[in-house]
Amino acid sequence: MTVHNLYLFDRNGVCLHYSEWHRKKQTGIPKEEEYKLMYGMLFSIRSFVSKMSPLDMKDGFLAFQTSRYKLHYYETPTGIKVVMNTDLGVGPIRDVLHHIYSALYVELVVKNPLCPLGQTVQSELFRSRLDSYVRSLPFFSARAG
Amino acid sequence: MADAALFEFLHTEMVAELWAHHSDPGPGGQKMSLSVLEGMGFRVGQALGERLPQETLAFREELDILKFLCKDLWVAVFQKQMDSLRTNHQGTYVLQDNSFPLLIRMAAGLQYLEEAPKFLAFTCGLLRGALSTLGIKSLVTASVASLPTCKFQVVIQKT
User: Fold this and answer.
1) Does the entry feature the keyword Endoplasmic reticulum, yes or no (chain A) (predicted)?
2) Looking at beta carbons, which residues of chain B come within 8 Å of A112?
3) Which of A4, A120, A128, B109 could form a disulfide with A85 if both were Cys (CB 3.0 to 4.6 A apart)?
4) Quick check: helix, strand or coil at residue B81?
């Protein structure tokens, strides 16, 4: 069980942060293009999911999975989107993504006077705390499973 | 406490506002902004110095006043006590805070080191103001070696 990578977007589609831990295959396109692709896909899926839902929707789009990986999604009312790719053995991790938002992003970026909102996060503290938090998760193992 | 976040955000905006309207971004302009911040802190410190000491009636000596700053004043403003107080017993005191709340969210090391003094100016004034209400004229400066640890140096001015 492992975590492959993590994206953090703001409400305008700016990629605030990207980290990867175990990624064997790259997309082959430049990083900027990759972020745009990811954001565009999320935007489309969200509206698709709410339009086509046969019942009243509570939380909306949560995750999708393929035969090799699972993509987990969490969005806040302010439009901050946390996207984490893990392998298939991982169940719902909404609380983990919420913790990344509230205890890491809000505490270390929003409350940091030197981090302008709406731009890629430069704070080393945020990067290292996020890294140690993800490595401490029960479903993260140092060897890719 | 939600109030701590309010003060932090307000302080962040104060610093940002003073730096945004810089017509002179060189060292002269910087000094002006730092002294404006320090002046604000001084007036707040004067008021806090009047309002805070309720139970502690008689400060027998300077050291008691400094201890009051480290315990009661720091707890009232930052919800924690100062981590260490040292003195040379000749009017110079060094107050050290190992996890200063206004710096703790910024970095844990050397990133942002040049920007740190801006965020300490108000607090230096705060200390100087509180001391002045309690009858002590002083000069307070701050230094940061690595975030979030910072030291405030208080030099008592003998008239």
Assistant:
1) yes
2) 105-106
3) A4
4) coil
pLDDT for A145 equals 45
The complex's ipTM? Answer: 0.72
Q: In this complex, which of A107, A114, A125 lies closest to B108 when CB atoms are compared?
A: A125
Instruction: Name B152's bridge partners.
Output: B95, B142
| The total number of structural domains that make up chain B | 1
Q: Is residue A144 part of a domain?
A: no
The per-residue pLDDT of chain A, averaged, comes to 90
pLDDT digits (tens, 9 = 90+) for B87-139: 988 889 999 999 888 888 887 778 888 888 888 999 999 999 999 988 889 99
Q: Which domain holds residue B145?
A: 4-156
With beta carbons less than 8 A apart as the criterion, state whether A121 and A112 touch. Answer: no
- Which uninterrupted H or E stretch holds A69? none
Whether residue A74 is predicted with pLDDT greater than 90 in this model: the reply is yes
| pLDDT > 70 in chain A, percent | 97
Q: Are B59 and B130 in contact (CB under 8 A)?
A: no
Number of domains in chain A: 1
Task: Encode burial over A13-26: b for 16+ CB neighbours within 10 A, e otherwise.
Answer: eebbbbeebbeeee
The answer to whether A125 contacts B12, with C-beta atoms less than 8 Å apart, is no
